[in-house]
Amino acid sequence: MSDSYDPAEDGAKMSFSKDMSYGDYLGMDGLLGAATPLSDAHDEMLFIVQHQTSELWMRLALHELSSARDLMLQGRTPEVFKMLARVARIFEQLNSAWDVLRTMTPSDYTAFRGDLGQSSGFQSHQYRLIEFILGNRNRAMMKVHEHRTELHAMLAYELTQPSLYHVALGLLERELDLTFDPSIFHMDTPHTSDPAVVEAWTTIYKDPQAHWTLYDLAEKLVDLEDYFRRWRFNHVTTVERIIGFKRGTGGTSGVKYLRRMLEVELFPELWHLRGGL
Asked: DSSP of the chain, one letter per residue?
């Protein structure tokens, strides 16, 4: 191809004074303009872009998880598998983002950390909403959003809805003609392992062919949590690598807090049954 190549000769549209362009469709002016460092530190741009892109991926994860729950409630479970697989891959993408952030040294971060004030990823309402949808629900975590009434209301509403795992357990009840103790469907506290649920999922795993849809659903949930756990682990190691055991900008204990989050199980029975097969 010569340097004089003109795309218009191949039919490419070149004038957008009256039509929507790529940048218009994606809202690029607002999107790129949002990455505005507050300091002169070189690495602050990396820090901002990494967190903004993570929030965009989380927006997609919420879109997929909400649709997946709706379809499961409608009894269209097989259609959910693609969505859950996509969410797992979203968290794989988020995991890769830590590799880029880890190129920032403690000295690099110190140069602009003071400009963050008390802002922290701990305050991400999208991350909290993802946890609530998946079943890790803690009403105390909503307090940080009281100054934004619309965000607080969004989280409060989610606590009135069955979690994604609640819906899966409802399908499990119907599949095996069981009734679980209503206490396992608590709406505003984290889900904890229940022996009856472990036994029910074990039945599914002992005869996958007879219960293939539920078996496939269970493995998709395990795959999602696997990638979610890796994201949390990478978060901890990245923070420790950059700030050590300092307190987080938002006031948490930093690495100690994040390590405690590693112990959280979203779908505990799906992990606990494995030792008994």
From this structure: --TT--GGGGT-----SSS--HHHHHTHHHHHHT---SSS-TTHHHHHHHHHHHHHHHHHHHHHHHHHHHHHHTT-GGGHHHHHHHHHHHHHHHHHHHHHHTTS-HHHHHHHHGGGTT--GGG-HHHHHHHHHHT---GGGGGGGTTSHHHHHHHHHHTTS--HHHHHHHHHHHHHT----GGGG-SSS-----HHHHHHHHHHHH-GGGGHHHHHHHHHHHHHHHHHHHHHHHHHHHHHHHHTTPPPTTSS-THHHHHHHTT--SSHHHHHGGGG-
**Which residue range is the domain that position 213 belongs to?**
41-240+253-276
User: What is the pTM for the complete model shown?
Assistant: 0.92
Total tally of structural domains belonging to the chain: 1
Instruction: CATH number of the domain at 234, please.
Output: 1.20.58.480
What's the mean pLDDT in 38-66? 97
pLDDT at 119 over 70: yes
